[in-house]
Amino acid sequence: MKGPVLAAALLACGGALPAAAEADFLDRARPFSIDALGAPAPDRSNRLSGRAAAIELGRALFHDTGLSRSGDVACASCHATDGRMIPNERRPAGRDRAFRPVSPIAGAAHQDLLMRDGSVDSLWAQALRPLEHASEHDLTRTEVVAYVAARHSDVVADLFDWDAFAVPKIAASPSGDVEARTAWTTLDPAARHRTNAMFADVGKAIASYVATIPVPASRWDGMLRRAARTPAGPDAVPAAVRRGFDVFTGPGRCATCHFGPLFSDGDFHNVAMPDAPDALPDLGRQAGSIRLLSDPFNCLGAFSDAATDECAALRFANLSMERGLGAFRTPSLRGVAARSSFGHAGRFDTLRAVVDHYVAAPLGPHGRMVGLRTASELVPLDLSEGDIADLIAFLELI
Question: Which of 84, 140, 216, 297 counts the highest number of beta carbons within 10 A?
């Protein structure tokens, strides 16, 4: 028994690999280090990106509970926990949010498409959705603009060209309740367009701040840094963690999608995750692509600051059922051990339950719907209890 065969046998038993088999551990691990993460590409659709005044206004709006009907909901209410940018899972997703838990926001500036179904293509367009959502900020479009104009008048005057336009005095929105939608139709087309432009500016300010939120280094990153500068080398990383990394990048097939310093390829995959109870199968990317194309705040829309050739993710969107049915964005696994719900519908509550799902590779709701296993990308995994324990030891550090 030699080479890879011996290595595989030892991994399956949870044993230690010989030094020769671990010699390249640091080289293989380096692409998964936070030190391999460069700066996010600038958002050409947001002219405010990188401007200090916009970042400060966005920071204020992100934490402002006054920017909600109830007066106690801010962006930070869901995207931060105890001052850290960890999703607040005390606010569970309900049916009207398709049971989708809040996604981590740190590192979001590195993604081309956002939301779990990829239905928005910029941070600023994403920031607009909750402002009008009945279960979140619950404001109308005109109310958002009026609040920001009044609360931050000095900053708004410097950043935006709002002075020449009077904010409509009525609560109106094209996506609100019947009363709000009716009021929206009473505004003339020019007033609706200008309101939309101002609304987009609010999102762009929030996005300018969100784009600056750093991805924090993890214990895994610290171990790799120490390993790189000490004579012990790979031995500075616990053996169970090294074995877990090898399962992650090998027989566990995790790195197929969770690759790189963010542990995400940023793409969309059908991995047969269960939907919410008594719900129709969530179409995921299939529906998200259609919604993105019809979104007036997308990269090609009238309120984007990007040139047409800078909107590749939108221009080349794949609408095929084979590509999008039941596919959801690969979440970053950074900080995954701090989460208590997993999957696009939050149906698992432990890392072990998630790993067991991948090992079993069930047909999934979309496979059952169309009668095809190929609806899911999963294949059953042959992992021992030792493999699973090591894999979880690794996941708990990243």
Answer: 140
Are 284 and 268 in contact by the 8 Å Cβ rule? The answer is: yes
Which amino acid, one-letter code, is at 148? Answer: V
**Structure letter (DSSP) for residue 25:** H
pLDDT of residue 367: 73
Please give the domain boundaries of the chain with CATH numbers for all domains.
3-32+217-260+263-284+326-395 (1.10.760.10), 52-210 (1.10.760.10)
Distance CA 333, CA 346 (A): 15
Please, what is the average pLDDT of the chain? Answer: 88
Element (H, E) at 329: strand 328-329
Q: Say what the pTM is.
A: 0.88
d(CA 354, CA 347): 9
Write down the pLDDT at residue 132: 95
C-alpha to C-alpha distance for 115 and 127, rounded to whole angstroms: 10
Continuous segment of H or E residues that includes residue 193:
helix 189-210
Q: Tell me: the pLDDT tens digits for 208-241?
A: 999 999 999 999 999 999 999 988 889 889 999 9
Please tell me what DSSP assigns to residue 167. P
Q: Note the pLDDT tens digit of each residue in 322-374.
A: 888 899 999 999 999 988 889 888 889 999 999 999 999 998 877 777 666 66
Q: Which long-range contacts (CB under 8 A, 24 or more apart) does 42-45 make?
A: 43/109, 43/122, 43/123, 43/124, 43/207, 43/211, 44/305, 44/306, 44/307, 44/310, 45/121, 45/122, 45/124, 45/299, 45/304, 45/305, 45/306, 45/310, 45/311
Contact 69, 139 (CB under 8 A): yes
Phi then psi for residue 348, to 5 deg, are -110, 145
Output the pLDDT for position 288.
94
* Structure-block tokens of residue 128: 């607009």
Instruction: Quote the pLDDT of residue 292.
Output: 95
